[in-house]
Write a structure and sequence with these properties.
Rossmann fold, alpha/beta, globular, 257 residues, seven-stranded mixed sheet, disordered N terminus
Length: 257
């Protein structure tokens, strides 16, 4: 859910500022990943810190983004947190391997991989920076049939289905422990806006309505029943040796289904 920035603001920062209105949604995403997070985190595509702010209690957060104004915003926002290290880096480049020097036990990658043309190459590099047993907490846009004008405007190369994502992660060395859909209500709105009405943005009012009226009950419902589809796919995966899969995660058949 994105919107045009106001005034002369940087367009990427403006979009992220619009998404900062969705505090309940960000808390919901964080809650889906929190059990897999360690103490030394590399956050890929940190933007202006909408998710970083939920990680400031960790030993170390390396907040990576390729967009200069975002890194500047991170530096200002987290100047009082010595454990938060903003870093300008293009995740599509081999320089990602240098992140290994921070000894991360977790990589968080939320709505990033769809922007990288060589997604397999990115996953191989992220696998390489993790210590054995380290976790990758990944969220990507789901349901390729939804791909439309909003995705193109956001420069998405693709949306993912379960089978493709599981195969890609396993082919790049990860062991998938959990793979599930999130946000079963939003696909209809995304389809109407992006495929029927051909819109390239969604208004801040849409973000606020969704966050305030829909997220509270939808997040509770999806804790009880995993939906068979959704706007996003979440994967929790490990670099060997892998811990046991969560009891809340899917069976092998569900992961590969």
């Amino acid at each position: 859910m994105m919107a045009e920035p106001q005034g002369g603001a940087d367009p990427v920062v403006g979009d992220l500022e619009t998404m900062s209105l969705a505090g309940r949604y960000q808390q919901w995403m964080f809650g889906q990943l929190a059990h897999a997070l360690g103490q030394r985190i590399v956050e890929c595509g940190a933007g202006i810190g909408n998710m970083t702010r939920l990680l400031t209690d960790r030993e170390l957060v390396v907040a990576v983004d390729h967009h200069g104004p975002c890194v500047e915003a991170l530096e200002k926002r987290f100047s009082a947190y010595p454990n938060v290290v903003p870093l300008l880096l293009d995740l599509g480049e081999p320089g990602v391997s240098a992140l290994a020097r921070y000894r991360p036990d977790t990589v968080v990658c939320i709505n990033v991989m769809e922007h990288i043309e060589d997604d397999a190459g990115l996953l191989r590099r992220l696998h390489g920076i993790l210590a054995p047993g380290g976790a990758l907490a990944l969220l990507v846009p789901a349901m390729p049939s939804l791909y439309g004008t909003i995705d193109r405007r956001l420069r998405h190369f693709r949306r993912y289905d379960k089978r493709r994502l599981a195969a890609l992660m396993e082919a790049t060395g990860f062991r998938v422990a959990e793979l599930f859909f999130m946000n079963a209500v939003a696909p209809l709105g995304w389809f109407i806006n992006g495929r029927v009405l051909k819109r390239s943005t969604q208004a801040p009012r849409q973000v606020l309505v969704f966050d305030r009226l829909i997220v509270p009950w939808l997040s509770r419902l999806e804790r009880i029943i995993r939906p068979p589809f959704g706007l996003s796919l979440i994967a929790i995966a490990y670099r060997d040796p892998s811990p046991q899969s969560s009891v809340h995660g899917p069976s092998s058949a569900e992961v590969h289904g």
